Amino acid sequence: MGSSTLINADRLWTRLMALAEIGATPAGGVNRQALSDGEIAAWRRVIGWAREAGLTPSTDAAGNLFLTLAGRDRAASPVLLGSHLDSQPTGGKFDGAAGVMAALEAAVSLAEQSDRPARDVIVVAWMNEEGSRFAPGMMGSEAFTGERNMDAIRAARDADGISVGEALDRLHQALPDVPHRPLGFAAGAYLELHIEQGPLLEAADCAIGVVTGIQGKKTFQVVVEGAEGHAGTLAQQERRDALAAFARMASALHAEIGTVDADIKFTIGRVAVVPNAPSVVPSRVSFSIDLRHPDNAVLDAAGARIAALCQQNAAPCAVTVTPLVDAPSNAFDPRLRASIAEAARAQGHSAMEILSAAGHDARHLAKICPAAMIFIPCRDGASHVEHEWAEPDHVAAGASVLAQVLRELAFAPGIAV
């Protein structure tokens, strides 16, 4: 089947742009953070589109949204496909949302054009992939796969002191007509479409990225404790300046960890200073560390040095280093990757293999079932920014490839991967 017969590209683009109106920023981006009023509104809109096509919504204790197209054998392991609806505070229209809307379009087109599939097809929007409001990210997929405890997830708080538990309860209260299902269930396969969030596809003038895997990632929260003092009266040698200690740590970390090799990615992305007053010696600094590398051995060795480097540069302050995320590099299912490449070839789209430098929920699904990802280009490789952009033709191409692979899995008597 040609790509034009597999999906309705105009409907997909129209819905994607309509979704982008929820949380729209003046600069053309999206601020729709996890479990916010904006995400609740996005749920309502997406659920409405799904119900129009006969898909049934449900949710779970982790705040994941499921939209089910019922198959002939309800006991067979379903095909899952989707991404996430939450964004960065100054995010774009496509990160996450394109994957959910492409999955919904693939499932809706399947319902419109085909006999009932052999197994359930479930579109999913995972809770808090971004980790911008609540840290760490990917809470929904980690809870679904049993990698993170719900008590720990519910206890996490945002900058305003609101807990995930409080926000989850509010989400579910706002949508009382969405039934609950148990947390976690067997899946036959998982597919996720996403913008690349990098420049390689655009540079190669390539429409489809067949994602080989995701590079490893570790994150840490570091807290430096000093003591407040008057900026005009406290002598330098008597100070326990938490910001000065942070500066030494940051310099040492960048000098050693940030220069391991050309593939290392070391980032201090968030810093909070207390009391953050012009004439007061800072008493407390908390900061985040994001460390990534495709080679797990290199990643582990670099991660093991972080606590020691912080301790070596802390005096006369105290420091606590708390690991948050430890996600090794993974490879996606080779037969699903081959199906994606073949679908792209059959539809006349250029395709290339590509490693994901960013993390995605598919990383966690790959631990419980065959999983794969489809990348599409984004302009200048820019993502997590308000000017993030993907061309309509690329969105349609990716969704059409997704739809073809979905049909192969949905009508198979057994998941043939």
TrEMBL record:
All residue ranges annotated as the Peptidase M20 dimerisation domain in the record: 213-314
InterPro entries: Amidase_Cbmase (IPR010158), Bact_exopeptidase_dim_dom (IPR036264), Peptidase_M20 (IPR002933), Peptidase_M20_dimer (IPR011650)
UniProt keyword annotation of Zinc present: yes
Coiled coil spans: none
Residue positions binding Zn(2+) 1: 84, 95, 194
Keywords: Hydrolase, Metal-binding, Zinc
Entry's cofactor comment: Binds 2 Zn(2+) ions per subunit.
Gene3D superfamilies with a match to the protein in the record: 3.30.70.360, Zn peptidases
Record's keyword annotation contains Amino-acid biosynthesis: no
GO MF term list: hydrolase activity, acting on carbon-nitrogen (but not peptide) bonds, in linear amidines; metal ion binding
Superkingdom assignment: Bacteria
Names of the cofactor(s): Zn(2+)
Alphabetical list of Pfam families matching this protein: M20_dimer, Peptidase_M20
List of residues binding Zn(2+) 2: 95, 130, 384
Record-stated family: Belongs to the peptidase M20 family.
PANTHER family, per the entry: ALLANTOATE AMIDOHYDROLASE, ALLANTOATE DEIMINASE-RELATED
Protein name according to UniProt: N-carbamoyl-beta-alanine amidohydrolase
Naturally occurring in which organism (per UniProt): Bradyrhizobium diazoefficiens (strain JCM 10833 / BCRC 13528 / IAM 13628 / NBRC 14792 / USDA 110)
